[in-house]
Amino acid sequence: MTKLFVATRQLNEKNSAKRAADTEVVLNEIHDREPGSESHLLGIARMNYLHARYRKAGKILDDDMLHTLGSAVVDIFQTVDRLEWRGLTDVEQCAIGVFHKALGDAMEIPFTNLPSHKDGWRDGIHFASEIMDWTLQYERRVAKPTESTREIGRRLMDLATYHIPGLLKPFVERVVSSRVEDYMQESMGFLKPGIVTHVIVSTMITTRKFALRYLSLPRPEGKNVRLLSDSPDPATGLYTANFWVAHPWYVKPTFGNRWSLKSVLSRLNGGPVPTKDGPWRESGYDLRTIGPVAQEKRGTEEMEAIFASLKETNYASGCPFHK
C-alpha cells in the first residue's frame, strides 16, 4: 500500500493534508452516521468506488483491504484499553464486531484468511477477536523498513505534528510513536520513545483515567463530540467538518472555529485557520465527489450504482452472523 501511495503521489507534501482530511471525512461518515442512512451508505459507496480500480488492477490486494478493516477494530480496542477509564463491555465488543463484519461485507472484503470463515462466527466478539489476531500477525509479517514506508511514515508524522512548535516536535513525535508497536516504529522510521517519554505518557494517561473515573460527571448529550455537521447546509446542500488535521478543509469560518484553542495555537505557529473564500472549501463537501482532485468529477454513475445496491441489500438491517 505504501508503494501505491508513493506512486500516485496522494500523500506527497502538496496533497497529504487534503488526502488526510478526505479520508477522515469518509471514515467518519461511515462510522458515525446511523447505519443504513443515506450519508452512511454514500460514504461506503464513495470509498468502494475510489478503491475499485486499484483492486481491479491488483494494486490493492484483498489482504490490504482486510488489514485496513482489521486495523480499525484493533485501534478501537487498543485505544479504549490504553486510554479510557474503563474497558469495553461484552455488549460493546460484540457491537464493534457486528458493525465491522457488516462493513466488510459491504466493502466486498473476503474473510477467507480468518479461521472461522467456513463455519462462521458465533457472534461479534468471536469475529473481532479473529480479525484482530490476524491483523496483528499480518503487520508483524509485512511491516519492514523500506524507502516507501519511511516516506509515508514521514508524511503521516508531519501531519500529526503540523501545529506543534519546532522545538517540541522531537518530543511530540516520540509521544505519537509510543502509541504504535516497535515493529511499526522501525518500519515507518519513527523516533523511538525512550524511558522518559514512556514515564511522562504513562503518568498523563493514568492521571486522565483517574480524573474521568472519580472527578468527572457523565457527559451530557449536548456535549457529545461531533466531528461532522448533523445535516447539510440548506443553501448549498453540503456537509461541513468540525475538525481539521493540518489544513482546515471543509470547516466553516465561524467565530468559534477561527478562535478555538487549535486555531490560536495554529496562528501562533504561523499555520492556517478557517477562512472565508480561502483555499480550504469552507462551504463543505459532497460525498458524491470527495476524494483526489483527479477523481472529483468521475465515477458518478458507478457510485450511484454501488449506492443503489447497498440500499437494495439493506445490509445494515440485522446481525450478519444470524441471518
Outline the structure in words.
- The structure is a single chain.
- The chain has 13 helices and no strands.
- The mean pLDDT is 90.
- The chain has a domain at 2-219.
- The protein is mainly α.
- The longest helix has 22 residues, at 62-83.
- This is ER-bound oxygenase mpaB/mpaB'/Rubber oxygenase catalytic domain-containing protein.
- InterPro entries: MPAB.
Write a brief structural summary:
This is ER-bound oxygenase mpaB/mpaB'/Rubber oxygenase catalytic domain-containing protein. This protein is mainly alpha-helical and about 325 residues long.
- Biggest beta sheet summary: none
Number of strands: 0
Tally of helical runs: 13
Alpha-carbon Rg, integer: 20 Å
- Name the beta content range: under 5%
In percent, how helical is the residue content? Answer: 55-70%
Class based on secondary structure composition and strand pairing: mainly alpha
Averaged pLDDT: 90
